[in-house]
Amino acid sequence: MNKNVGIGFRKDFAEEFLSSDILDPAFVELAPENWMGIGGYWKKIIKQLSEKHSITSHGLSLSIGSPEPLDWDFLINVKAFIKEYDIQIYSEHLSFSKCDNAHLYDLLPIPFREDTIKHVANRIKEVQDFLEMKIAIENVSYYTPVAAEMSELEFINTIINEADCNLLLDVNNVFVNAFNHQYNAKEFIKGLPLDKVSYIHMAGHEQVEPDLIIDTHGEDIIPPVFDLFDYTTQRVQPVPVLLERDFNIPALHHMQSEINELEKIANNHWNKKHATSKRYISTAV
Q1: Cα angle vertex 243, ends 239, 174, to 5°?
Q2: How far apart are CA 179 and CA 117, in angstroms?
Q3: SS3 262
Q4: d(CA 152, CA 139)
Q5: What's the mean pLDDT in 265-283?
Q6: How many CA atoms are closer than 13 Å to the CA of 76, on its beta-carbon side?
């Protein structure tokens, strides 16, 4: 069985993970913001981690949809982090998280509009030129559209095309949005630029009302989301797949069982290739 599925590395289980073989991911993902510039004990931990596993990175603070200029000091640190740990994937959210240098500590939706497309696509190009690699932009969960002039699908497709970047396809986010906004999740995925998918995220969510699901990353993946993942893997080339678990962390063997289920589904369709090979990760600009 090929190994395609990684885990989001958390300090909560760092010691147990590194000192045992209970959890056996294909790779680990880090949020650069949580690890850049650190020293001491946690610097030793990340060094040990990098010696055992390949690392991908998923950012939280780029705020690609912000109206203000890019934070170049931040990007300098991101680039150094990427080079230090030979990171082949840097991904971010199609959202904004700060305004006037005030960090909002949330990933807020941006308007589905033509002027937004031009603004965001230009910012992605600037980031790619500076980092000297393509980045993957994630479709995000949102709970109300903001001044929308087009569909979410048209918005995502146009940005990916104009920015010439990759797509991080978060399957759970598609499920959440499809439920909350009453559209067909499989038809949505079918309409995405699937040839640009370089990374997949899988996670759990919580249904808080009969007509409302919240994307939490704190619950198990449910069968309909596994089914949507199966549908997706039949339509994209082999790419790294990440299991996200940000809080309410279960025992390591429980997370490994979810990894195993994802591996089983992926290998039903990707059994001839190894998804974490660098040949499947396009970084050239």
Answers
A1: 75
A2: 25
A3: helix
A4: 9
A5: 62
A6: 3
Beta-bridge mates of residue 201: 170, 242
Higher pLDDT, 246 or 108: 246
Q: What is the pLDDT of residues 21-57, one digit of tens each?
A: 999 999 999 999 999 999 999 999 999 999 999 999 9
Question: Of 36, 137, 159, 156, nearest to 90 (Cα)?
Answer: 137
Mean pLDDT, residues 60-79:
93
Domains and CATH numbers, the chain: 5-280 (3.20.20.150)
pTM for this entry = 0.93
Tokens read off for 1? 């069985």
Structure tokens at 180: 């909350």
**Rounded to 5°, angle at Cα 12 from 11 and 13:** 90
Sign for the pseudo-dihedral over CA of 113, 185, 210, 208: negative
Tokens representing residue 170 in the block: 């978060």
**Residue in 88, 86, 106, 84 with CA at minimum distance from that of residue 96:** 106
Torsion of CA 81, 82, 83, 85, to 10 degrees: 80
In this structure, the dihedral spanned by the alpha carbons of residues 243, 194, 159 and 182, taken in order and rounded to 10 degrees, is -70
Residue 206 to residue 152: CA distance in whole angstroms: 22
Average pLDDT, the chain: 91
Token pair of 44, please? 């030793």
**40 sits in which H/E element:** helix 40-52
In the numeric block, which tokens belong to residue 200? 């997949």
Q: Vertex 18, ends 16 and 62: CA angle to 5°?
A: 100
Tokens, residue 129: 């030129």
